């Protein structure tokens, strides 16, 4: 056994570090935190704010193994990441493994390279308790907020909901943006574009300097222009420069990976983590744009070598944020001689980081901007054409032009032909087009990250989990918004003739943007109304500032918690006692058939329309909303239409046919088969003829395309792409096959491979007990129901071979399972007892009335 034991938090990091250290070092992984607050219960003493940490069930075996390794080592090196979370991991390891100060050393590095690792070992330190306390403060405060606010939501909104400090603020941002969009009243104006020709018949695209509010004014201008001689009134040429952006921080990497590569925040961080752990980039959770002198020199060498010395302009950047840690570095390559790597997805993100860092050390681009004014003194307004020429590309050679998410497509500036003042131009076309103002755009993932960062909410490590959490909780989603249609007027002047047309314009559609769900909106409104301070953007930013102070040793974390809780808890009690129940209720009108009120509201199973009152003697009737509808915007007529669903049609091929709407949208039901109605089609418009068409299309799609050993083979497209189905086996069809034209040999090949894989999947299987030993990607494992369990090592500390696992008894396997989950085979409570509780709850109010 090695004298030195190094513990890191991930297996990939351990593997990379091991190759840099000699045989005197043994590197092991803790697989993240080895202990945390308990999953059940708050786990915090609210009198002292002391956390009650515990080793999670899935880490107990690992902790035992680490303790055994510690006993054999003379020195333990704690090498988790250099941020607060990494410091806390090191602290938990030291405490749980009973490491004495003289037998442990803490090392940190922001890149996993041989030099960085060896330098860290030469400069160890002890655990920074201030960083640990900052992490504890965040963890404890967020646990208290979640555990105390969530039960209030269960009582006042709907069971099963949850709240969080940063997540709830992120949802609020999305809800407020959606309300802003709903309340937005578009204003129309007429924008005038002109295309002029010089003596050489070269086109000059231009825009009128002022818009017209009224159609009549735009038409009058075109009438004046029809008989006007246009001249070049002025030509102005100005030199200018463009400078490169700073190297990447976590936030700017997430934003740029979204706009340039289409990666979502979670995917970007997953790939960046791999790049860091495999030694390609520096630490990927940072809010600093600082570069080390070593990095600046490395970039300079590469720039001079690849582009020439005139492209090199070494510089360092300073971070605007006061909380940024300048001792850290921006995200950059560890070796500028490495330009690309094998894995395609990893390489795309790596090259983005590589080019951005290189560009930040390159000379400014030199441009020449030209503005041409076109018109006549008789006209009230003049046209302006803008263009620019790149004289020296500088950093653009490496990085290109960056386009912001909200840049107007119409502002693209083009190269202009040469003209002189006084030169007469002829118009080719002058067009006045009715344009409507647009509301603020909905947030993309990258846009939300930028907004959170601007407000000082969250830190580099929190953006991705925050965005993932608000989607997992179904408070927001990215459903597609179908565009609406409106009429726009277009007036054109060409060849001395004015022509007016009315066109249809699509507007308001959206894809891949955050939209609040009904429950997300109701929860956000309730929290904003009743917990104004917690949901206040300034308060959330101030809390982050307090964590920073604790990390710097300027504040004691338990004192901060005491101050927070002394104000927070009384508010919880007051809201629980006095706040009204929140359902998002909207009274839409009165049902003409029954004379009862029609409400849109949140119910036990989500958004719904209700006819009648809960207190009425006759029970209310309910209808679920369709995809794309929500309680805040549904109209009275649309609500009544929902009560026409489901409806019966005539039998088809001796099986009943009906049309309805369910969890996955509108459908035609034929016998026991549910067939989705095509997207955008109104289920209420589906008649007998259309229903039969949909059924026939489904039958055709499900018809066998071939046979395999006498059994039919069908094909389809599912969640994971195209597939063929043989008996009950689904076989994914890779891209190398022509899915639309699969041959019999293709089908045989695909099914043979799948059956062979399935045959090799099970080492042993006990179907009755739902237990099996299976081959997995990372080696054999035990499966019990849907749960997966590790296979322990043998008594001699070696792994079981496949042949040995074939001989293992069921009793032995059950013991492996219970060692990892003592309640795995415990008798579960009957569901019947759970069902009785609501019935009893309903009877209680009746008893009180008597």
Automatic annotation (TrEMBL):
<feature type="region of interest" description="Interaction with DNA">
    <location>
        <begin position="162"/>
        <end position="167"/>
    </location>
</feature>
<feature type="site" description="Interaction with DNA">
    <location>
        <position position="154"/>
    </location>
</feature>
<feature type="site" description="Interaction with DNA">
    <location>
        <position position="138"/>
    </location>
</feature>
<dbReference type="GO" id="GO:0006265">
    <property type="term" value="P:DNA topological change"/>
</dbReference>
<feature type="domain" description="Toprim">
    <location>
        <begin position="3"/>
        <end position="112"/>
    </location>
</feature>
<dbReference type="InterPro" id="IPR025589">
    <property type="entry name" value="Toprim_C_rpt"/>
</dbReference>
<dbReference type="InterPro" id="IPR013497">
    <property type="entry name" value="Topo_IA_cen"/>
</dbReference>
<feature type="site" description="Interaction with DNA">
    <location>
        <position position="473"/>
    </location>
</feature>
<dbReference type="GO" id="GO:0003917">
    <property type="term" value="F:DNA topoisomerase type I (single strand cut, ATP-independent) activity"/>
</dbReference>
<feature type="site" description="Interaction with DNA">
    <location>
        <position position="33"/>
    </location>
</feature>
<protein>
    <recommendedName>
        <fullName>DNA topoisomerase 1</fullName>
        <ecNumber>5.6.2.1</ecNumber>
    </recommendedName>
</protein>
<comment type="subunit">
    <text>Monomer.</text>
</comment>
<dbReference type="InterPro" id="IPR013826">
    <property type="entry name" value="Topo_IA_cen_sub3"/>
</dbReference>
<dbReference type="InterPro" id="IPR013824">
    <property type="entry name" value="Topo_IA_cen_sub1"/>
</dbReference>
<feature type="site" description="Interaction with DNA">
    <location>
        <position position="142"/>
    </location>
</feature>
<feature type="domain" description="Topo IA-type catalytic">
    <location>
        <begin position="128"/>
        <end position="573"/>
    </location>
</feature>
<dbReference type="InterPro" id="IPR023406">
    <property type="entry name" value="Topo_IA_AS"/>
</dbReference>
<keyword id="KW-0799">Topoisomerase</keyword>
<dbReference type="InterPro" id="IPR000380">
    <property type="entry name" value="Topo_IA"/>
</dbReference>
<dbReference type="GO" id="GO:0046872">
    <property type="term" value="F:metal ion binding"/>
</dbReference>
<dbReference type="InterPro" id="IPR006171">
    <property type="entry name" value="TOPRIM_dom"/>
</dbReference>
<dbReference type="InterPro" id="IPR034149">
    <property type="entry name" value="TOPRIM_TopoI"/>
</dbReference>
<keyword id="KW-0238">DNA-binding</keyword>
<dbReference type="InterPro" id="IPR028612">
    <property type="entry name" value="Topoisom_1_IA"/>
</dbReference>
<dbReference type="InterPro" id="IPR003601">
    <property type="entry name" value="Topo_IA_2"/>
</dbReference>
<feature type="site" description="Interaction with DNA">
    <location>
        <position position="285"/>
    </location>
</feature>
<feature type="site" description="Interaction with DNA">
    <location>
        <position position="139"/>
    </location>
</feature>
<feature type="active site" description="O-(5'-phospho-DNA)-tyrosine intermediate">
    <location>
        <position position="283"/>
    </location>
</feature>
<dbReference type="Pfam" id="PF01751">
    <property type="entry name" value="Toprim"/>
</dbReference>
<comment type="function">
    <text>Releases the supercoiling and torsional tension of DNA, which is introduced during the DNA replication and transcription, by transiently cleaving and rejoining one strand of the DNA duplex. Introduces a single-strand break via transesterification at a target site in duplex DNA. The scissile phosphodiester is attacked by the catalytic tyrosine of the enzyme, resulting in the formation of a DNA-(5'-phosphotyrosyl)-enzyme intermediate and the expulsion of a 3'-OH DNA strand. The free DNA strand then undergoes passage around the unbroken strand, thus removing DNA supercoils.</text>
</comment>
<keyword id="KW-0413">Isomerase</keyword>
<dbReference type="InterPro" id="IPR023405">
    <property type="entry name" value="Topo_IA_core_domain"/>
</dbReference>
<dbReference type="InterPro" id="IPR013825">
    <property type="entry name" value="Topo_IA_cen_sub2"/>
</dbReference>
<comment type="similarity">
    <text>Belongs to the type IA topoisomerase family.</text>
</comment>
<keyword id="KW-0479">Metal-binding</keyword>
<keyword id="KW-0460">Magnesium</keyword>
<feature type="region of interest" description="Disordered">
    <location>
        <begin position="824"/>
        <end position="850"/>
    </location>
</feature>
<dbReference type="InterPro" id="IPR003602">
    <property type="entry name" value="Topo_IA_DNA-bd_dom"/>
</dbReference>
<dbReference type="Pfam" id="PF01131">
    <property type="entry name" value="Topoisom_bac"/>
</dbReference>
<dbReference type="GO" id="GO:0003677">
    <property type="term" value="F:DNA binding"/>
</dbReference>
<dbReference type="Pfam" id="PF13368">
    <property type="entry name" value="Toprim_C_rpt"/>
</dbReference>
<dbReference type="InterPro" id="IPR005733">
    <property type="entry name" value="TopoI_bac-type"/>
</dbReference>
């Amino acid at each position: 056994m090695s004298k030195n034991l190094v513990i890191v938090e991930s297996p990939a990091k351990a593997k990379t570090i091991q190759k840099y250290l000699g045989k005197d070092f043994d590197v092991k992984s803790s697989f993240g935190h080895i202990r945390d607050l308990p999953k059940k219960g708050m786990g915090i003493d609210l009198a002292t704010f002391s956390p009650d940490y515990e080793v999670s069930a899935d880490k107990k075996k690992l902790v035992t193994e680490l303790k055994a390794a510690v006993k054999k080592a003379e020195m333990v090196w704690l090498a988790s990441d250099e941020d607060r979370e990494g410091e806390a991991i090191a602290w938990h390891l030291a405490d749980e493994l009973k490491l004495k100060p003289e037998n442990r050393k803490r090392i940190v590095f922001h890149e996993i390279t041989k030099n960085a690792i060896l330098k860290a070992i030469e400069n160890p330190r002890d655990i920074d308790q201030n960083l640990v306390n900052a992490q504890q403060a965040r963890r404890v405060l967020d646990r208290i907020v979640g555990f105390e606010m969530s039960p209030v939501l269960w009582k006042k909104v709907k069971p099963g909901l949850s709240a969080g400090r940063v997540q709830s603020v992120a949802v609020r941002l999305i809800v407020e943006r959606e309300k802003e969009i709903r309340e937005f009243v578009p204003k129309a104006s007429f924008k005038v574009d002109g295309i002029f020709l010089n003596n050489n018949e070269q086109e000059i695209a231009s825009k009128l300097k002022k818009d017209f509010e009224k159609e009549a004014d735009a038409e009058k201008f075109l009438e004046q222009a029809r008989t006007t001689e246009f001249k070049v009134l002025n030509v102005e040429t100005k030199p200018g420069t463009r400078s490169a952006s700073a190297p990447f921080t976590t936030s700017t990497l997430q934003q740029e990976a979204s706009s340039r590569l289409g990666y979502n925040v979670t995917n970007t961080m997953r790939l960046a983590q791999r790049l860091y752990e495999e030694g390609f980039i520096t630490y990927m959770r940072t809010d600093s744009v600082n570069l080390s002198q070593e990095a600046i020199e490395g970039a300079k060498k590469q720039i001079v070598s690849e582009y020439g010395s005139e492209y090199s302009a070494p510089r360092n950047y300073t971070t605007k944020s006061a909380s940024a840690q300048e001792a850290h570095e921006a995200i950059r390559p560890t070796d500028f001689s490495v330009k690309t790597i094998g894995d395609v997805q990893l390489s795309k993100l790596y090259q983005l980081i590589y080019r951005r860092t290189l560009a930040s050390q390159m000379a400014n681009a030199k441009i020449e901007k030209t503005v041409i004014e076109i018109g006549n003194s008789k006209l009230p307004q003049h046209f302006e054409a803008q263009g620019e020429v790149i004289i020296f590309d500088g950093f653009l050679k490496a990085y290109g032009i960056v386009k912001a998410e909200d840049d107007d497509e119409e502002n693209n500036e083009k190269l202009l032909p040469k003209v002189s003042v006084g030169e007469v131009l002829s118009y080719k076309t002058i067009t006045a087009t009715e344009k409507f103002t647009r509301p603020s755009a909905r947030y993309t993932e990258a846009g939300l990250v930028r907004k959170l960062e601007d407000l000082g909410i969250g830190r580099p490590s929190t953006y991705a989990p925050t965005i993932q959490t608000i989607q997992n909780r179904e408070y927001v989603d990215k459903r597609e918004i179908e565009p609406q249609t409106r009429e726009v007027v277009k007036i054109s002047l060409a060849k001395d003739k004015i022509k007016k047309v009315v066109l249809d314009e699509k507007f308001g559609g959206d894809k891949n943007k955050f939209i609040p769900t009904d429950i997300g909106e109701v929860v956000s409104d309730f929290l904003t109304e009743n917990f104004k301070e917690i949901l206040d953007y300034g308060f959330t930013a101030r809390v982050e500032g307090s964590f920073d102070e604790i990390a710097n040793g300027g504040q004691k974390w338990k004192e901060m918690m005491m101050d927070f809780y002394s104000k927070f808890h009384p508010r919880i009690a007051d809201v629980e006692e006095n706040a009204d129940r929140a359902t998002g209720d909207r009274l839409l009108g009165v049902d003409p058939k029954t004379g009862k009120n029609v409400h849109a509201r949140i119910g036990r199973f989500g958004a719904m329309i209700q006819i009648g009152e809960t207190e009425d003697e006759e029970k209310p009737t309910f209808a679920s909303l369709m995809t794309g509808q929500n309680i805040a915007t549904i109209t009275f007529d649309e609500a009544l239409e929902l009560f026409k669903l489901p409806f019966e049609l005539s039998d088809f091929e001796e099986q009943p046919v009906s049309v309805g709407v369910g969890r996955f949208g509108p459908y035609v039901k034929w016998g026991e088969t549910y067939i989705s109605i095509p997207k955008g089609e109104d289920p209420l418009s589906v008649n007998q003829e259309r229903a039969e068409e949909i059924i026939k299309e489904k039958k055709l799609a499900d018809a066998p395309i071939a046979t395999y050993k006498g059994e039919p083979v069908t094909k389809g497209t599912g969640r994971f792409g195209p597939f063929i189905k043989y008996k009950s086996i689904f076989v994914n069809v890779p891209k190398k096959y022509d899915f639309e034209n699969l041959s019999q040999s293709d089908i045989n090949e695909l099914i043979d491979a799948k059956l062979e894989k399935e045959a090799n999947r099970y080492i042993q299987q006990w179907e009755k007990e739902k237990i099996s030993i299976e081959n997995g990607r990372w080696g054999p494992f035990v499966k019990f129901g849907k749960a997966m369990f590790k296979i322990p090592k043998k008594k001699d500390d070696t792994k079981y071979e496949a042949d040995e696992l074939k001989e293992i008894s069921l009793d032995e396997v059950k013991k492996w399972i219970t060692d990892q989950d003592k309640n795995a085979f415990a008798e579960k409570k009957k569901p019947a007892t759970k069902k009785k509780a609501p019935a009893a709850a309903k009877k209680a109010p009746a008893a009180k009335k008597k």
